[in-house]
């Protein structure tokens, strides 16, 4: 089964819709069983997804592109969630714009656009659920 940019968009929409009503809560609480709090977990998602997009654009063979994306330290929970969503939408757009034969570095092996879309779905759904658990919510991802 192919994983597409549309699948990533659906995962992002599901997580954002589940978490947006909780942006008025305290995001300094632990995200599920992680050591990170909810705020930093959302920041990690944004960084990870933008990093995947960078990989597809630059196409390095043996390393990650040398940058980090971070939310501003005074960003509110709503703004850090927006940062995570932006990273995902940038990755989805990059997947759509990439030719299927494109390959780029990942520690588990060179990945194609479909692979980065799949990894983006995993990061989004896994850590979205971590944040939701920390905030006493549930994420109901699309089938």
Q: Gist?
A:
With 143 residues, the protein is mainly α. It has helices at 5-19, 38-58, 77-97, 113-134.
Written overview of the protein:
The longest helix has 22 residues. The chain is mostly helical. The chain has four helices and no strands.
For the sheet with most strands, the description reads: none
Query: What is the CA-CA span between the terminal residues?
Result: 13 Å
* Rg result: 15 Å
**Residues in helix, %:** 55-70%
SSE blueprint:
Elements: H1 5-19, H2 38-58, H3 77-97, H4 113-134
Supply database-style keywords.
globular
